[in-house]
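Narrative summary of target 7.
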Amino acid sequence: MNRSEMARRALEVFDQMVATTPGMRVRTGQRQMAEQVAATFSHADLAGQAEAQTDGQADLQAPARSIAVIQAGTGVGKSLAYSVPALAVALARQARVLISTATVALQEQLVHKDLPALARAMPGEFRFALAKGRGRYLCQLKLDRYVRPTAADPDDDEEDDLFAGLPPSQQEKNRRQTAYQELADAFSSGRWDGDRDTLSVAPDPLIWPSVAADVSSCTARHCPFYGSCSYFVQRKALVGAQVIVVNHDLLLSSLDSRALPELDKALLVIDEAHHLPATALDQFACQMDLSRLNWLERLSSRALRVGAQLGVEAIADIPSQAALIRQAVQDWARLVLHEYGAALSTQAGRVRLPRGRLPEAMIEPLSQLAHSAQVYIEALREISKTLRAEIRDQPSEARRLAAQYAQLGSLAPRMEAVYATSQCFLQMADAGQPPVAKWLTREVVGDLLVIRAHASPTLPGSTLRGQLWGRVRGAVLTSATLTSCGRFDFVLRETGLAEDPDVTTLAVDSPFDFARQGRLVLAGTRADPKDVSAFTQEMVGALLADLRKVQHGALVLFTSREQMRLASEALPADLRPKVLQQNEWSRLRLLRQHAQRVADGLPSIIFGLQSFGEGLDLPGRLCEDLFITKLPFAPPDDPVGEARAEWLRTQGRDPFMELVVPATAIRLAQWVGRAIRTEDDEAHVTCYDRRLSQTAYGQRLLAGLPPFTRVQPSASA
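Modeled conformation, tokenized:
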């Protein structure tokens, strides 16, 4: 089947689905998107498949890549528009579909609603599964060490508290032991399947990391608990699935592993794609602690003991390299306090290295640190390799040997972080290239002064181009907000797809009649929003007056916790019972209470921060009024953003117009998107930030919003 025929048949499947599914009807924008998805995936040449055919002729050129970036406005129905043609093409090509999302809410919608409905209605059979990272699952071997102390490592009692870095008290040890036993009982009885997300109560953050699965301590099929391992039960479910749903973090963290299908052999859909750049920066950042090194002694003790038992010659280097590492870290910490101590002692507790330049005195200890960490890591790899061989060859000793492997693996990532962070700090950018963002933080924990070093790439596009796109043959990136101020330029740069000849863009308009359904009130204030105190005081006064007019459901979005706190404290007695504030209840419980109040005919108002500006689906009366207290600019103290802006200025470019305004445009469009969710909704959106209507960049922001009927303050009085 040639590409054109494959795309045509995939679109036929989509049309049939729409025609035969009760309650569905033809949407012009949805079909337009489905047509683009079908064409994109049909055009891509997947690795390992027969040579592509184009109109009956062999395509002797390099394998074709095909990537579409599609903005689908609210109400288009993008999940159906990409999943049906993607599945049709995948089934025809005996390939798999990988769908990546940014939020749990969309994952749950796909896995529990959209995909089950498609499985019942699609002409071809398929299976689907949700993939999660190892850290979401219990490691039975680790838990066994805590509920069966005789199997524990001799130095387990010296484990540092995850946050304080201090040995826990006996009372705390007893509490944790009880929690470990409860987890073990729940799992062994079958009341719990080992997935932390299925626990009735979220696990203690001090306890879960110590029993969570992770790649560095896992011996896979050589583990004595492999047959009942929750993570590998999930992996087995993935093997037979034609559709796998993941999140962006797992997608990027699995690039060099076999945890997911190979990207050049699968069709990739990235939903909520506007989150991908930030996820990439987080994924490839690194950090290390310059203050707490007790883990180094424990790691060395374990490595020497296990290595000696196995006869690994490389352990001869461990004592000397451990001493050099400790000395280098201490030297670096002293230099940091000498050079940046005053700056770190401020309220912010953070200092960024201008242009990523390292003081000359720090180069030698960092070079020694990087070298010694590398030698140490090589020794650990030799021990791990030998341990795996012993586990394979001595099944009767598998439990003991696997426990030793896990004990080494629980601390090895800290050494890898030392190596990665020191390498990043030593890295200097070539002329014209952005530097690595480097910063230091100071925190007082109990009686201990904790200094950390952090490093991150500054250009997500470069990172994604180097790490992701070279592996991908066919992909669709989609979201309701991919254009910024009406253009795709910004998101293409941020995702690393700018000037890529294999990329097609498409903007599909929402089917909603925004001019009829919504009003945008440009309220503004006399106070300049940059004068935080005066602006907040005036804004809160105007907000309280408007909240008295709310008849059904309303959402108020704040840009900071302090802003929300001040508004909450200013609530008069008659308004206070009507307000539900984020973090006072779980998100699910808050939304249920809100819906119940509105259903009972009572006014209900949600106070939320930026995370409530996206992903909330409040149709009908649940959000008839949306209040935006201030334009959602990114926090001004982001060190990665600061480093990037600094570099842009050295290039004669304007970081505010090139970075801040486009990013704010996307975020603001997401916020405004909470107001109109269906074709029957009607809503008022009120923004108190006068910059939206009184500045040139505000006009650019307005151009990226739905075409609501606009109301000036005088007209809304």
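Residues 50-59, 157-164 have pLDDT under 50 and may be disordered.
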